[in-house]
Specification:
Elements (H helix, E strand, L loop, with lengths): L14 H5 L10 H7 L2 H8 L3 H14 L2 E3 L6 E3 L1 H15 L31
Antiparallel strand pairs: 1-2
Amino acid sequence: MKTLPDDWRDWALDDADIDLPGNGLPGLEDDQLATRYSVRALAEETGISKSQASLSLQRCLEVGLIRKDRRTGAPRANVRALFNFIMHGVRYVFPAKPGEITRGIATTFAAPVLEGRLYSAGNC
């Protein structure tokens, strides 16, 4: 099994996070953490509705991709489960489906606008 890089974290630190005092997560007080990772804040950050953000959090809790922090109750990534999902499960959730071979948009020397003006190495 592959291991996680030593510097990998399950959240990104902003400059604002580093400047804030606290002993919980780096730079965040418990009330700031709860506010930042509330359903409303997650919905605003991702651009989806609050109900969809809530349902998504519930699904992730049920399958173990996130867990609630014991002290704050804020959702935290279950790093090992998330890593395993990314490594082994994404291909089942988002399968690649090869389509038929089709002709794309004509570009460079094949484009009607550039016909006769550009040449490939084979035509010289």
